[in-house]
Specification:
Layout lengths: L8 H17 L2 H6 L2 E5 L2 E6 L6 E3 L4 E2 L1 H27 L17 E9 L8 E10 L3 E9 L6 E10 L4
Antiparallel strand pairs: 1-2, 2-6, 3-4, 5-8, 6-7, 7-8
Helix pairs in contact: 1-3
Amino acid sequence: MTGDRNEPLAQLKARRDMALGALVNGMPYAAWLGIRFDRRGDELTATLPFAERLIGNPMLPALHGGATAAFLETTAIVELTWAAMWGDLEAGRVAPDPERPETLPRLPKTIDFSVDYLRSGLARDAYARARVVRQGRRYASVHVEAWQDNRARLFAQATGHFLMPRG
């Protein structure tokens, strides 16, 4: 039985990983950018692996601002969706399956998204974490921070407001 307290740990972890994989794989742009998510319990860390196609200024070289913004927005949407479905996932009421698109959660719609570029994103992997600031039935607010080599030295941060999907 899914969601049972006696469910084997390996089975629980596999269900969580399958749900996260289905969520991320349902976002083609995230796949094109190469964004991956590392899950530790209910905490997600996004990774944007460096690729030459992400360079906006070859003189520095620096990540393109659009790639940075897309990375931050994708991180916010995945975190918000993950937080919204966590309770149902843990109780076994939902089980997203990439082979069955009707089981995938509907994603929140961006109302606005404001990015602060704090320094140039260098030609290396980038990481981001999002925090849901407020989540209601119809509206949510999310804050995202991105860094590269040092978690304390952010290169970008963003705040987004989202319209939550209806039931």
